[in-house]
Amino acid sequence: MSAKTIFQRIIEREIPAEIVHEDDLCLAFRDVNPQAPTHVLVIPKRPLRSLAELADADLALAGHMVLVLRKLARDLKLESGYRVVANCGPDGGQSVDHLHFHLLGGRPMGWPPG
After folding, report:
1. Bond from prior residue into 112 cis (ω within 30 degrees of 0)
2. Which side of the chain, N or C, has fewer Cβ within a 10 Å radius?
């Protein structure tokens, strides 16, 4: 990735964010434009453009991020349910070229999503 994305700037603390989780591999923070009462983004600290860029060697990172999503859902008391979304590419609705998962909850989710 050539230019820093907004997410890379959040990782480097150039832009403030309400961080709810951080470890060596990933960062989670509240979305500034929430689409649900609870809306958290989970991003890898290593710049990856999207799910399509994940390699077989990224198995541990991908699994770790899924477990962080599970932990956050518990910590944020989303017992009645939640949705995890990863938009991939322009047609998939991806607006920032840095892999990220949306954790959405706190209200019923409709289907189809969009």
Report:
1. yes
2. C
User: Is residue 85 within 8 Å of 102, Cβ to Cβ?
Assistant: yes
Question: Tokens 């962080």 belong to which residue?
Answer: 68
Residue with tokens 């995890």: 84
The verdict on whether 64 is a catalytic residue reads: no
Cα dihedral 49/94/74/10 (nearest 10): 60
Residue-wise pLDDT for 57-111, tens only, equals: 999 999 999 999 999 999 999 999 999 999 999 999 999 999 999 999 999 999 9
| Secondary structure letter of residue 53 according to DSSP | G
- Could you give the 3-state DSSP secondary structure of residue 43? strand
All residues at 6 or more sequence positions from 47 whose CB lies less than 8 Å from its CB, including other chains: 1, 5, 8, 98
CATH code of the domain containing 16: 3.30.428.10
Give residues with Cβ within 8 angstroms of 72, minimum separation 6. Answer: 20, 21, 28, 40, 42, 103
Residue 61 belongs to a domain: yes
Rounded Cα–Cα distance for residues 80 and 33 (Å):
22
